[in-house]
Design a protein that fits this description.
Strand order of the largest sheet: 1-2-3-4
Helix content: 25-40%
Largest sheet: 4 strands, antiparallel
Radius of gyration: 17 Å
Strand content: 5-15%
Shape: elongated
Structural class: alpha+beta
Protein name: SWIM zinc finger family protein
Number of strands: 6
Number of helices: 7
Number of domains: 2
Length: 183
């Protein structure tokens, strides 16, 4: 079952869902103030649900609610702070979530497949459209991301997922046909 059918946005933040259409790493990310704060301050917040987190940085005086999840082949991220708009998407709160994720401090959920990722997957593209793979079923998308775009073979994925290699092969064939063979 897909998280998409289970997950419901929080009633108090309807504008948070969806995130920006693209999110890419800023060229000067190690030198900017948001990224310095992300690397030096601790986060006293935590998960609200599979897609949202509270970020409460140690030198800040406010909690911020952030969307932070995978969808399609990309990361959807949004924050309610002014810095998010000012810095072109990367505020200290989102930078902190990225910093925690790449260091194994948080787990990020995929809204379409329900799979959880303790680190950014090899297939992640920050500037991809989150709706590019909406035409795939959750099982097709999971097989496509894991085997076609990731580094897991069909038989290994079949063992990990409890499916037969033939089923995985069929899911991949369907996904390749629906995507027109593009990565």
């Amino acid at each position: 079952m897909s998280l998409r059918s289970q997950w419901q946005p929080s009633d108090d933040l309807p504008q948070q869902i969806g995130g920006p259409p693209t999110l890419s790493m800023p060229e000067d990310w190690t030198l900017s103030t948001p990224w310095q704060r992300a690397q030096t301050e601790s986060d006293r917040g935590g998960a609200v649900n599979d897609a949202e987190r509270i970020v409460y940085l140690s030198d800040g005086d406010e909690m911020h609610r952030c969307l932070w999840a995978l969808q399609g082949r990309t990361l959807v991220a949004d924050c309610d702070c002014e810095g998010h708009k000012y810095n072109g998407g990367w505020c200290a709160h989102l930078a902190s979530l990225w910093w925690q994720w790449v260091r194994g401090g948080i787990v990020v959920s995929h809204l379409d497949t329900g799979r959880q990722y303790p680190a950014p997957p090899a297939w992640l593209q920050l500037d991809d459209d989150p709706t590019d793979y909406d035409h795939l079923t959750p099982a097709e998308l999971d097989a496509y991301l894991t085997c076609e775009l990731g580094s897991v073979g069909v038989r290994e994925y079949a063992r990990l997922s409890g499916r037969s290699p033939g089923t995985i092969g069929n899911l991949l064939a369907d996904a390749r046909e629906k995507t027109g063979g593009r990565p």
